[in-house]
Amino acid sequence: MMTERFETGFHPFVLPFLAGMVFVLGVCALKAVRVVFELNKADRKKWLLSLLRPDLILKNILDIVLDCLIHVRLWKRNRVLGFMHSSIAFGWFMIILLGHLEVLMYCPERLSTFYYPIFFDFFIEGGQTAVISRLMDAFLLIIITGIIIAFIKRFWSRIVGMRRTARPSFLNLVGLYSLWAIFPLRLIAEQYARAGDLNAAPWWAYSTALCVFMTVLPFTRYLHIPSEMLLITMRNAGVEISSPHRGMARVQADSCPNCGVCIDACPMNADPANLRHSTVYLTRQLRRGNEARIREISNKCMLCGKCTSVCQVGVDGPRMRILARATEKYRINLHFAASDVDSSAIGESGGGKSKGALLYFSGCMSQLTPKIGRSVESILRKAAVDYEWMDRDGGLCCGRPLYTAGRLKEAAELIERNEELIIGSGAGTLLVSCPICYREFREKYRLHGIRIVHYADYFCELMDRGRIRLDKGDICYVYHDPCELGRGCGIYDTPRRLISKAAAIAEAPKSRVESVCCGGSLGSLSLDFEHREKITRASLENLYASRADAIATSCPLCLTTFSRYSDRPVKDLAQIVDEQIIL
Amino acid sequence: MNEIIVVIGGGIAGMEAVGTLLSLGHTPILIEAGPKLGGHVASWHKLFPDLSSAGELVSRLQEYMKGANIFLGTRVISLNRLADGYSLKLSNGMVINASAILLTTGFQLFDASRKEEYGYGVYDHVITNSDLEAWLAGRADARVPKNPEHIGFVHCVGSRDIKACNSQCSKVCCATAIKQAIEIKEKFPYARVYCFYMDLRLFGKKYEDFYVNAQRDYGIQFIRGRVSEVGETRDGALQIKAEDTLSGKPLKLRLDLLVLMSGIVRNDSIRELSLMAGLETDSDGFLRSVDNEYSVVESNRPGIFFAGACTGPKTVPETIAEARSAALSAHRYLQRTTIIR
């Protein structure tokens, strides 16, 4: 039988909790409003409309439950970490939910007090025998298990499979310790109350811990709890980062839980001195508004995209960095699009020499690796494909190096000029061998129905249609996924299919999404040669671990970079295919 | 004197050392992995700065070392340290107990195909300095066109280039490029010859005169700047991009022949041998002398000596001088140990 212990239903110890609650709700609401106003008009409209669409509402709810409460993505990556985070998030959520249910069932008139569900056992006697109460006890124990793991991880991160974790700032530590304190204090206070001891001291402690946590929340990584929900709705609405600091960038920075998964993922960690350039520190500096560090971190990154692919909340580190770079003021304006190009190969002044045919674009990097273009040409000839080589004698840059350097206007000029040339050629398909160019073509070009295809996909098609046949050699290759092709464009399977038809194939321990950047990336503006060498060697070690005889890749930059230090042959996919074609 | 001195490597350093040891009364054994003596020099045409014949030098050395024990086509399979010397097992089955060893294992040329942007092995008319030397010496080479009008030389291919994993200067390529430019100009008097260089390091006797001659008497153009990329046009000619860093202008040139001055890098085939002997490697990858000023020919192991390009890039006269010096050091070393015994 449950009875109210106090006629008034009030005790002063609830005040810290209430104060914290009002504060955190107020600050978060203000932050949310600011973010919404920072969005550009189109994005804001898109987002507001998305909140009315039933399908997106459902998706938002589902994503919030799966990502914010259960941490499905983290479970997939690391079960211990997944359990740790979901036990606290989901457990706490269930306690709050069940607490409200309890109040709703036994004393619905008290629901408006806010604090009854939190301090139920103090105000109500005899509640502990109910099923709900037992369930809540179970969830509390699960949370405490999670906190024990968190405690161990704090001092011994390897036990949860993390080599390195983010260094917490002082305020984050306050948040962390107050969060850890909440649940044991609740347990203790409840035990007192259930034993009939109405000593208010443990309840004061519990309420104070809650107050401290909620007060520091908006200024610490725990801001990710409310922020991630906003991020999910905005992402589902199709909002993208369009400013380096504001709007979507701010939501993403605020949504970073500082879990540090990106630190272990970052290829720059081959030298511990570069750990401080991980995305987790970028989001931290973005929150602090430390421009000097934002610039340093942004310029150093190779934009391999691995942090984004492993990120639990999907923080788009590369995009944030590119936009930060775009704020740099340059004294000299360059006009690369004005360079003379010999377009005779593709029909001068848009004569449409190659009507409907295949136009091959090898890119600037392939000028330094002539074997790739040669091999592509040879394969096309052997497959009797009618083609024109657009930049055989040199052409315009695709624009991606300028884009990644933050020179968006110059990149756009190049893109426009290239679009003219390509459309003017009358080609039906644009074949690209360089993944850097390929990604730029796919993401930034409007080519009015001209098919853009990477050679791995294209050669696979030729193979499937019987236009080329491959003889399986006895060399064993390990395939290195170039960042721009794998994480950038999602092409993982066709290169492997081609290699497995032409040779034996082995897998490196870290491959596909987890592939380690070769270190030669054009993405970094300030990484020096010694650090790059360390990254290359670390990336090679990963490939050597497959025990393959040779390394295969499909990017001219990876090819050049690996060839420098590799102890075994490095070949481009096109070379391998060309060598193994049966005539 | 009945102690055996083994000389490993039958290039000019090994030959000179063996000749000197013979004249000092020793009975050296020369081991050469290849089928003939003379090493790199044997396949060259002429030597700078006097343009004397490389073949004649090798013949002279052969005369000088007449009577020595020579094993051609033979490698050292294993090397063990003994209390008073070394035991070597050879690929022909012989076991030799040597009191001293002289390493004259030389260098290898940087593999120019590793700088893929220059297109060696990809384009039809790109050759290396050693290919050109062989062609000048009379070997046919389809890559050298009948009547080239424009010929380019690229200095420092694989030298002073951290991207090629060799930051050191190869010492001899500047003078070699000038020599070869003059020689090819003599073969094709109407061709225009360009040399693309970073620095010209013309430190040796008469090298400067050589350089002035090349410009004044042969009209060879020296352009300061590296070639950034090489392409092949539809008609099979080469098209290069470079920068003239003195005038600050980018250049685009059509060439009929491009010669890459491959640098001198350590000889990888002696890696195992140096490990077995416990020899140290210097930071430039070459074998490490006790010091690089006074005791260049001495190794960190008693009784093992170096001569020639196994410790770094050397010119021909330097190599010859070092070979004599190393032979003398080995001779003194044996005298000393004999007296002690």
Q: What does this molecule look like?
A:
The complex is a heterodimer of chains A (583) and B (341). By secondary structure, chain A is of the alpha/beta class. Chain A has helices at residues 14-38, 41-50, 54-69, 72-77, 79-106, 120-123, 131-155, 170-194, 201-216, 224-236, 248-255, 261-265, 279-288, 291-300, 306-310, 317-325, 370-382, 400-404, 408-425, 435-444, 455-464, 486-489, 493-502, 529-544, 556-565, 573-580; strands at 3-4, 124-125, 358-361, 387-389, 429-432, 451-454, 469-470, 476-479, 504-506, 550-553, 570-572, 581-582. In chain A, the strands form 4 sheets. A 4-stranded parallel β-sheet of chain A has the order 4-3-5-6. A 4-stranded parallel β-sheet of chain A has the order 9-8-10-11, with helices on both faces. In chain A, helix 20 links the parallel strand 5 (429-432) and strand 6. Chain B is of the alpha/beta class and 341 residues long. Chain B has 2 domains: 5-106 and 267-340, FAD/NAD(P)-binding domain, CATH 3.50.50.60; 112-264, FAD/NAD(P)-binding domain. Chain B is built from 8 helices and 20 strands. Chain B has helices at residues 12-23, 39-42, 54-64, 129-136, 173-187, 207-216, 271-277, 316-340; strands spanning 5-8, 29-31, 46-47, 52-53, 69-71, 76-82, 85-90, 95-98, 100-103, 107-109, 126-128, 150-157, 192-197, 221-224, 227-232, 238-244, 249-255, 257-262, 264-266, 304-306. The longest helix of chain B has 25 residues, at 316-340.
